[in-house]
Design a protein that fits this description.
mainly alpha
Length: 87
């Protein structure tokens, strides 16, 4: 009876070791897929980066010209003045 128990324990140990090795292989595969997707994403971003920088620079330049305009400063002054009178 003890021999069968030892055999069962050994077979369970072997199955567990095989399952652990399979899990390690799957984890390694996921790491590889993650690395490849990061490389693809960086490649995709690097081709579009100059256009994005140009576009955002133009946007901020126009935004700054609106913020510095006398009309905008006047509207902010009026808003601050009226909001402080109602407090």
């Amino acid at each position: 009876m003890d021999i069968f128990d030892i055999h069962n324990v050994k077979s369970e140990k072997n199955n567990t070791i095989l399952q652990y090795q399979r899990f390690k292989r799957i984890a390694k595969l996921f790491r590889l897929v993650e690395l490849l997707s990061a490389v693809v994403l960086l490649s995709w971003i690097s081709t579009r980066l100059p256009f994005v920088i140009k576009l955002s620079g133009e946007y901020f330049r126009q935004l700054l010209s609106v913020i510095v305009s006398p009309l905008f400063i006047f509207l902010i002054d009026v808003f601050i003045t009226f909001s402080s009178t109602f407090v």
